[in-house]
Specification:
The chain starts with 35 loop residues before the first strand and ends with a helix. It is α+β, with helices and mostly antiparallel strands. 27% of the residues lie in helices and 23% in strands. It has two domains: 270 residues, D-amino Acid Aminotransferase, Chain A, domain 1 (2-Layer Sandwich); 64 residues, 2-Layer Sandwich (Dna Ligase, domain 1). The relative contact order is 0.18. The strands form four sheets. Strands 1, 2, 3, 4, 5, 6 and 7 form a seven-stranded mixed β-sheet that branches. Strands 12, 13, 16, 17, 18 and 19 form a six-stranded antiparallel β-sheet that branches. A four-stranded antiparallel β-sheet has the order 8-11-9-10, covered by helices on one side.
């Protein structure tokens, strides 16, 4: 991404230093809990240095934690040892930046190591199912099934995989109160899409039911309505289409607000919230689609939306999520790979990833103190 229009200026605080207490987390660098943490990604070879996963993993190894990265095709169910994986093991060290750390992980000389997940405290699911639709459609569901088995042992799996099986599909979004959602239709019938558009002023947004990063997203209005049949054909090629009412506020971009344990992530006085906006005539504001970003304070409307969706996130064990908000509606909910932490930290100097690691360490301490009597769902959002 080219961030040629970052309005927010980084604060004077040094990146990586926490300025104070975070909501629901301890402050600063925690040294009393050394943990083993594994991150599930699509493939280590396809990770990029602006991914939140890489930032979290780099900060974790700097704390002295044992970190492993597992691709969706790297799991093993062993008849004797249970859930294992061929993992890329990170050395424990201080790396200059995310680029240097990723180069370490992707070193051609790096060999994978067979690990037993029952020895790991945390398994963070950070793969993007949309990236697997055309070439490895077996991978996302397989990864979730292995994760579900891992959660039956002592490993804390986040987000909770029993619910993530349903939450990865955009139909999950329809389970939240209608007051925070745009009007929506999900169908493969072109005439039903036309009917929806006619009922909403001839304007709407069409996208694949399964997708992310602004891929396959089309804004329909009078200027391109004549191309509707071709657009619908392209969207439904691999499944259902979702069509939503157009939100005028989306013309100014959207907010990406991160939630942790069902509540907005906040460190000291700073929310993990950024404004994403298009820098071209393309309407998409996703960072992966070339949008710009700036740190912002969420307004009362955005905080109200977070408050409304919080109970369901907690009930479903959705530990870390990304709410995409335009005006008074939530456009999308990212439960797979909620990202943006690296951009937020670089713009603000606030250690959001450190706050997440503090919280993971706290969960591991609680699990140990309760002797394994807490369920994975409870630990996911406690």
């Amino acid at each position: 991404m080219t961030e040629s229009k970052q309005k927010a200026k980084p604060k004077s605080k040094s990146p990586g230093k926490s300025p104070g207490k975070s909501t629901g987390n301890s402050s600063g660098k925690s040294n009393d809990t050394t943990i083993k943490i594994a991150f599930v990604v699509n493939e280590v070879a396809t990770e990029q240095d602006n991914y939140t996963t890489i930032r979290l993993a780099r900060k974790a190894v700097a704390r002295g934690h044992e970190v492993a990265l597992i691709g969706l095709g790297d799991f093993i169910y062993d008849w004797q040892d249970g859930i294992c994986a061929m993992a890329t093991m990170s050395k424990i060290a201080e790396f200059a930046d995310d680029t240097a750390y990723l180069a370490h992980l992707q070193d051609p000389e790096m060999e994978r190591t067979r690990i037993n997940l029952s020895a790991y405290d945390i398994l963070m699911l950070r793969s993007d199912p949309a990236a697997e639709l055309t070439t490895r459609n077996w991978a996302p569901s397989s990864g979730l099934l292995f994760a579900q088995l891992a959660s039956l042992d002592r490993t804390i799996v986040l987000n909770d995989p029993s619910q993530l099986t349903d939450a990865v599909n955009k139909t999950y979004f329809q389970g939240f109160p209608g007051s925070v959602r745009p009007a929506t239709s999900i169908t493969r019938e072109p005439d039903q899409i036309s009917r929806f558009l006619d009922a909403h002023g001839g304007k709407g947004v069409i996208k694949p039911l399964q997708g992310s990063g602004g891929q396959g997203v089309f804004l329909i209005d009078e200027g391109n309505r004549q191309n509707l049949n071709q657009i619908v054909e392209a969207v439904i090629r691999d499944g259902y289409a979702i069509v939503q009412e157009y939100l005028p506020a989306a013309a100014e971009g959207d907010l990406r607000m991160l939630t942790l344990n069902g509540r907005p992530l906040k460190v000291a006085d700073t929310y993990a919230c950024m404004h994403r906006f298009s820098q071209t005539e393309d309407h998409r504001s996703n960072i992966s689609a070339g949008g710009g970003v700036e740190m912002v304070e969420p307004d009362e409307t955005a905080l109200r939306i977070a408050e409304i969706v919080g109970p369901k996130l907690i009930d479903d064990g959705m530990y870390l999520t990304g709410l995409d908000i335009a005006g008074d509606k939530m456009m999308e909910l990212n439960v797979d790979t909620p990202g943006g932490i690296n951009f937020m930290e670089d713009l603000s100097g606030v250690d959001f990833s450190g706050a997440i690691l503090d919280d993971l360490e706290r969960k591991v301490r609680l699990q140990r103190q309760y002797g394994g009597t807490l369920t994975n769902r409870q630990l996911a959002v406690i």
